[in-house]
Write a structure and sequence with these properties.
globular; about 220 residues; about 5% strand; mainly alpha; 9 helices
Length: about 220
């Protein structure tokens, strides 16, 4: 049914939004496109598939945020060198890091699809059958987007991120710790992407090569 195809597209898009929004937040805050977004998602999905519930999601998000810490450190390292005139070296570094993560996952888990048992059940809606897993994906994505919006609008950290997005030089002049704020942006967005990876593992599965696919979708 057309309605069922429409809902399935929305449910899948809700997962992809959790890749695209973090990439956008990093870009506006740091002027860098983080190509490692897909790697954060895949590492979270692989970890949750390995450990299962209830601790798998916690460990998966932690693993994604750890990768975000590494990328943030690389970002700060390039700026500390004070030799770069544009963001391209950092973008290439994040691409290389994504390939490194892909290779590590290939070595550890091989080429098999990684899955976590999906939430069972479905609800009839006219001629369409709507999966509970899909509704969960959409609901969780909406909650995360609303939470991120609230953080950016009202929390001190979010206001600092917005100030850095407007002008990093201006933010530094008024005493905002720009580099620390940008580092934490990488970590936060890696966590959000990790949630998307967990939902992908529950819905469509993933392999080591999904990192590049998820990054491409995020664009």
């Amino acid at each position: 049914a057309v309605l069922e195809i429409l809902f399935n597209g929305i449910f899948l898009g809700a997962i992809y939004a959790l890749f695209a929004v973090p990439m956008s937040v990093i870009w506006v805050t740091t002027d860098v496109i983080d190509v490692s977004i897909g790697a954060y998602a895949v590492i979270a999905g692989v970890v949750v598939a390995a450990f299962g519930l209830p601790w798998g999601p916690v460990l998966g998000i932690a693993a994604a945020m750890l990768l975000g810490c590494i990328t943030g450190t690389v970002f700060l390292g390039f700026h500390a060198l004070r030799t770069m005139k544009d963001a391209m070296p950092i973008v290439l570094a994040t691409f290389a890091f994504m390939l490194l993560v892909e290779s590590a996952i290939l070595v550890v888990v091989g080429t098999d699809n990684q899955f976590l048992d999906r939430i069972g059940g479905s609800l009839p809606m006219g001629e369409a059958v709507i999966s509970v897993q899909g509704m969960f994906n959409l609901a969780l994505s909406v909650v995360l987007m609303l939470a991120l919006s609230a953080v950016l609008k009202w929390s001190p950290s979010g206001l600092r991120m917005r100030a850095c997005a407007i002008s990093s030089k201006g933010a530094a002049l008024v005493g905002i710790p720009v580099k620390r704020t940008q580092f934490l942006t990488f970590v936060l967005c890696a966590g959000i992407s990790g949630v998307g990876g967990i939902l992908a593992a529950m819905s469509i599965g993933m392999t080591y090569a999904s990192a590049f696919s998820f990054t491409t979708i995020a664009f």
